[in-house]
Fold each of these.
Amino acid sequence: MEDSKLKPEEMAFFMQSNASCDNPQLGDLMGAYLCDALPTDKRAAFEAHLEGCIACWTDVANWENLGMAAKEQRRGQTGEVNQAKSFKAGR
């Protein structure tokens, strides 16, 4: 799942879906998949599962979006801290 970018209306459709995973054992691999910690064979099986499971695909997209938002927030906080330090140093 290299490109999980969706148009807002497509994301809204998936977010409103009440679909559930038909193979919870593969769904349990999600954390390892998101951390890129699955062996090649299990990764391939999970990605094949994602192609047909809206519930897991949506969960992966949500977790990826949350991770990106957290990175952006950290970057912003780091920038604020660095700006404050440079301001204090300039006094």
Note: The chain has a mean pLDDT of 74.
Amino acid sequence: MGADDGFLYALKPDGSQRWAFGTLDVIKSSPVIGPDGTVYVGSQDGNLYAVVSSSFGLANTPWPMFRHDPRRTGNRQTKIPAGIAPAASSLLFFIAQLAKSLQKEAAFRG
């Protein structure tokens, strides 16, 4: 999870800290995990970070990602279609959202 202190934190199942990675500004976006375990997160410093982790994709749980599924329905009954890689779909969604956010910021700064 990202934090206002500019760090990306990975937590263990018991809630204790597994590791932390520092950026140059606050993190407001939700990180995503690629199929190879790389964690991607954008920071308010304008950078997209790719952090190598020992994870390999999403957890095998009923709610594996932010808002449940790649479409972000927030509905636990939504089925993820066969052949869709949730981590890859989340990564593409995240990159598109980050690009939009950076465009808005650049326009704001003029």
Note: The chain has one helix and five strands.
Amino acid sequence: MSIHENICAKLKTARKKCGETQNQVADKLYITSKHYGRIERGQSRISIDLLNEFAEMYGVEIAHFFEKPCNKNKREIVAEIKTKLSNYNTDKARKVLEFMKIMEA
């Protein structure tokens, strides 16, 4: 998924999560609903200023729109961390592994 596609998907998700229509969001951003619809569908690019207004409107940091989605589940992430930490023979690594075991229980 490209950054542009990711931004569009997150715009749509945030709007739907708040139960708003494209018309309602467009009105709040002082743009036409047609233009907002094109942005959300990826047919038009959103300006950084408009993206910032959207972020403020929904109370998220603008960086949220640039974060890549993680396709791994919690268990996969934990297993990956454990594997990487087990390769280190340090007291800190052992303490982190012990902590992770406690958190899993």
Note: The chain has a mean pLDDT of 86.
Amino acid sequence: MLGKRDLYRSVNSPNTSDDSTDNVRNDEREFLNQILTVLSYSDGNESMVEIANRRLECGIRDLIPVVNVLEEEDLLKSAEGQ
């Protein structure tokens, strides 16, 4: 699911990560952790603020790039208006 969207490195070893041919961000480990955590806890029981604060120990603004990417890839949708 994530690999075909270039959100997960094709080569994941620290020694060979430069050999990766995909377009994953340089700060990919932290970004990938945020993606996986957001996807894991986005089940309607916790808000994005709760996920940021409780699960990732970061501010909600730190998750804006993650949420934007997940929405663009149709992996996450806003619950506004529901």
Note: The mean pLDDT is 80.
